[in-house]
Amino acid sequence: MIPLYLASTSPRRRELLAQIGLQFSVLSVDVDESRRGDESPEQYVLRLARDKARAGLVQAGEGVVIAADTTVALGDVVLGKPGSQAEAEAMWQALSGRSHRVLTGVAVGRGADIRVEVVSTTVRFRDISPAEMEAYWASGEPADKAGGYAIQGLGAVFVAGIDGSYSNVVGLPLAETAALLAQFGIRVLG
Q1: Residue 19: in which H helix or E strand, if any?
Q2: 76 has catalytic annotation
């Protein structure tokens, strides 16, 4: 059996892979996540996923590595993890009553072969009141989430609808990840 590694310490990605029955080890990788001035949000997440996969492959030997990076984009503006309540509230004000995209770059690799894909899901927020913003920040949930919310948690109450992959919004598009893994001989079903 080919060893499988996740080059991410994200609990959400671990839960998603476990949900589809994969057995894997976790690798901690360190890459510069600064966005380059000329990068589109799509190019940004793809580059980071590829860089994380490369860093993981250095540790993985003959194993297969999964790496990913997720961001929230409002037009070409990337909304990262909020560093403060004021930053989070500014994000939610921008997202309130509007649609945005959640983009995940996924990279799966073995040896020198790395294959990548970007997945985009459109998320529509309802209007969010200032009192809700304050209460949501106080919950502690938004602090380490791209765009300052978790669709799988309390943040779900802001989501009026989505078009695309739910698991992508959580942090790893499972259908696309399974298809990439199959190219390396790791099948989720059969």
Answers
A1: helix 11-19
A2: no
